[in-house]
Design goal:
The protein is an alpha/beta fold and 151 residues long. It has three helices and six strands. It has helices at 41-49, 51-57, 94-106, and strands at 8-9, 26-33, 62-67, 74-79, 84-88, 114-115. The strands form two sheets. The protein has a four-stranded mixed beta sheet with strand order 3-2-4-5, with helices on one face.
Length: 151
């Protein structure tokens, strides 16, 4: 795809997050796995040793552990803005699942898309962007290389 075909937006913060105190955007995590399937072995290890630590580190996130008769284990993450992300965790180890949960916790729930500009303001300056010569007096004249003294 070309750059014009992919969606883009300006860089922004979710609900001005970080201006006051930080609010984690992940509100609910559901870990769905099978009690017997071989593909859920890493998930069962993570539930035994890591899910309590994750819940203690993230008290604002609700963690549901639901054993179901399913072939494919997955993590369903629900965010404050209503977006839902499903990550399949077939044959992943406990540290990999912990890393994936940390990644989902740090995200805002918005889709990952191309950023138009690295800066954006609601009140753009009518004077233009600042550069080192903005307030330089005109009486000094243009900058030129120093002439060597003729000897």
């Amino acid at each position: 795809m070309t750059a014009r075909a992919t969606p883009s937006r300006f860089l922004k913060s979710v609900l001005q997050n970080g201006v006051g105190r930080y609010v984690c955007q992940l509100k609910r995590v559901s870990i769905i796995f099978s009690k017997n399937a071989q593909s859920s072995l890493g998930v069962r290890d993570f539930i035994e040793e890591g899910v309590v630590d994750y819940a203690k580190k993230n008290p604002g996130t609700v963690v549901y552990v639901s054993p179901q008769s399913c072939r494919i284990p997955k993590i369903v993450a629900e965010y404050l803005n209503g977006n839902v992300r499903e990550e399949i965790i077939t044959s992943k180890t406990s540290p990999q699942i912990s890393e994936l949960l940390t990644k989902l916790t740090d995200q805002s729930g918005l889709d990952i898309i191309r950023i138009r500009k690295p800066f954006y303001t609601n009140n753009p300056s009518i004077q233009g962007q600042w550069h080192p010569f903005t307030n330089r007096p005109l009486s000094i004249g243009p900058i030129r290389p120093q002439k060597e003294s003729a000897e």
